Structure formats: C-alpha cells, structure tokens
Amino acid sequence: MAKKPKRVLYVWQARYPWDVRVEKICNALKRNGIEVEILARRAVGEPPVGETAAPDCIPIHRVGPETPRVLSLPVPGNPVWQAAITERVKKFKPDVIIARDIPLALPSAKVGRRFGVPMVIDMAEHYPVALRTWKKYQANPALKFMVNTLRIPDWIERRSVLLAAGILPVCEEMKERLVADYGCDPKKIVAVLNTPETARIPNLDESTLRRKGAVFGYHGVVIQDRDLLTVVRGFHLAAEKNAEIRLSIVGGGESVEDVKREVAKGKHGNRITLAGPFKPSEVAGLYNSVDFGVVCWKVNDFTNNTIANKFFDYAAFGKPVLYTRTHPMVKLMKTMQFGVGYDGDSPESVAQGMLELVDSDYGKLARNGRAAVKKEFNWEEDVRKMISFLSDLT
C-alpha cells in the first residue's frame, strides 16, 4: 500500500505570503501529517527565514538578496534559485518537490533528479498564454519578442511537463490539453480544483437565501484578461432597462485606469463603485455585501484551461453568478446550476445575463450552488485526491 510522503518542499516563484493556492495546498499537506517547507522569493524588508501564520506555522525560506531583486528572478538557469533549491533538498530531505507553475519547474526537476526526489508541478494556469495577455510582457519589446515570437515559455512548459513525475492542474481541461499537446501520460495528471474548504462555507439558513437587492460584485485582480471592460459596457446597457441594478468592482491591478475610463464613458457610472485591493480577511464580507457574483474572463486558451477560486466561493456563499462561457465554467455549471453565462467580448450578452439573473429564481440558484459545493466541489474532496496521488509517487 502506498504511503504518504513524510516531507514536501513547495517552490513558489513570488513573495510569500500571500497566495491562496499555496496556502491551501501547504496547510492541507501539514494537516494530513506531512511536514512542509515553502521556498519563496525574497522581497525588500523580508527576513531570509520566516513562517506562515498560526496555527499551521509552516517554515518559509526566502531566496535571494533584498536588493537588487533582479538576482532572484524566477527563471530557469538562475544559479541563485538552483543553489537555494539544492540547499533545501539537502537539509530538509523532502520526499516530493512541488513547483508552482513552470517558472521554476526545470531547476526543481534538475535538483530532484540529482537527489532522487520526484518533482510535481502545481499547474494553476496556462502560463505561456497568460504571459501573452499581460500588459507588462506586451509593453516591453524585448519581453514581447521572447514571449510572442520566440515562444520561450512554451518551450519551458514542454520540457517541464515531460520531466515532471506528476502534474496537479486546476481543471480537467488543462489535463486534456497537456495530453493532446505534449503526449503526457494521463495517469500522471490529477486535477485539484480551486474549491473552498468546508470549514469556510458559511452556515446559512437555506430559507433565507433570497435576493435583497441587485448588486453585482467582482472581487479580484483587475487585469486585461479579466475583461472587466466588457462587463462595464454590458452593465451600462442593462442599467438602461433596470434602474435597480448596481455594480461593485473591488481589487487592484494593471488595468484599473482602463476600467475607470470605461466607467466614466457611460451615463450610469454613478451606479458603479470601484475600490482598491482587499485583504484576504475581507473576502467573506465582500461576498456577503453583493447579491450576485461576477466571474469574467477573456475567452482564450488561457481561460479555457483554468478556473477561479471565486467561482466556487460565490456558490458556497449562496451567490448566483454571472460568468463567461469558458469551457471549464460551462462544464461545471451543467452540474452546479447556480448562474447565467454570457458570451465573451459581448456587452449585449452581459446585459442579457444580468437582467436574466435579476428576474431568476434566486433562492433556487443559491441553494443549487451551496449543495454542489457541500456534496462534491469542496477542498476536502480535492485534498483526498491530491494525497492519494502524491502517495503513489513515493
């Protein structure tokens, strides 16, 4: 019988804290009796060693000097990361290395192969396509050439997934892509969704799940691939027909100014509120402050291979959603049945979806979402699959 790994080293390319998926996976491993360390990029003002918040208190070892931070760029071939991963493997002696996405998968695989430790990729997104949607990689000519023309991230992804002992994508669509594009062994890929922990599902009286207003809420990063411009344009159209609806956008990012300009173009901008970044501790209050959640994306190879935490979070909080018809959300909604979809890049479709939701059987949609999360789409179910998968590797 396979045994659980005793120790896992999680390699994260950015500063930590905070990232919701890093937290959920590492805490879940520890709570299942597995010792965990996080290797993260060091930011200015951070000590080289720290730990996560109580009660889990997972050690964090930070990579690179505070300045210049260019020395700790999370890219294959960076000797700073290579040395850091090697040092932690020697001292911590993990049974498994988990590398988040592909930036540090190759050095993690190289060190793992040297010491006989399997490397697993926690694949939260289609990284090469993501880079081609982010402004900072398109605004810089050199970066754009490397990402768009030379397609270096695509080469890194191919090498990484073929060297990995296992892959943990966030949706089944990513598994299908990796098998089709690279010939990956499907047995080495197990989807671990961005589902909520059952302990964080609010204890609500199901009979009280009714619409109190008509506030649509988006909570998350404000960047180009979230396509909030289409949502704002659609809201202006819907607001022409319904004087009750409101839109709340909470979050920060590189496209905030673009969204502000779009809000100002329409005559219903006074019914749209924009707030800045929020803390993780504020999420529950934000969800409770709206009537409908908004899960919006540009439709492309990136969004057709990922799924957002908030898709499941809104369901847990009994909030019906307006969602873009990406492959993963369309497939999940057939089972969960707690929202209305719209066509990407179509303000008219957004408006139609908003008006349909306002007139829907709110209580039924809310109960459907909560029931689906409690029964199937919860973190405990995903953790069970993850632990079983990692156990087979050791």
Description:
The N and C termini lie close together (11 Å). The protein has helices spanning 20-31, 79-92, 105-115, 127-131, 135-139, 141-149, 152-163, 172-182, 228-241, 256-265, 283-288, 309-316, 327-336, 347-358, 362-375, 379-393; strands spanning 7-11, 35-41, 49-51, 59-63, 96-100, 119-123, 166-169, 215-219, 246-250, 272-275, 292-295, 321-324, 339-342. With 394 residues, it is α/β, with parallel strands linked by helices. The protein contains 16 helices and 13 strands. Helices cover 43% and strands 15% of the residues. The chain has a 7-stranded mixed beta sheet with strand order 3-4-2-1-5-6-7, sandwiched between helices. It has a 6-stranded parallel beta sheet with strand order 10-9-8-11-12-13, with helices on both faces. Helix 3 (105-115) links the parallel strand 5 (96-100) and strand 6 (119-123).
